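Predict structure. Input: DUF3109 family protein, 188 residues.
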Amino acid sequence: MFQLKKTIVSEDIIEKDFVCNLNACKGECCIAGEAGAPLEEDEVKIMADIYEEVKPFLRPEGIAAIEAQGTSIVRDGELETPLVNGAECAYVTFNDKGWASCGIEDAYNAGKVDWKKPISCHLYPVRVQKYSSFSAVNYHRWPICDDACTLGQELKVPVYKFTKDALVRKFGQEWYAELETTAAEMGK
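Output follows.
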């Protein structure tokens, strides 16, 4: 672990390799699990504000779940996206190949909204845990992403490089530049 500004960063984000392999997993991270995507407090308002623009990109099941539960929910004291029947994220869509996608990101890519998706989704496999005086930045290992780890190793792409845009979005360009310096010092 090392410190960058007000974050404690796991060396795994520098040492481990990762590149999403949608050919292998087909977006399983949007479907698997027992909870929705983690949300930050400011994202709750954004999701409510953009819902009408995102709605045309969603499946009927997702719309029904959102309209029954809300654009975000609180579960076990944590903010997250609602689920369809306790399964996939309510915002998940499927392309013509059956691969999962994000309806919010689909709306963003179509120019309908200017917000890409929840930062937790954009950052994955990086997870951020907030504490009172700092945030912990960690690599999350999930077996459904084994193919992403293999592809990352083949392409020699460390987690921090794969998640660069999301890390800059979350922490800023200056923070990321310091991370790159640390990685270079570690020989990665």
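Strands lie at 2-4, 7-9, 73-75, 78-80, 92-94, 100-102, 126-130, 135-139.
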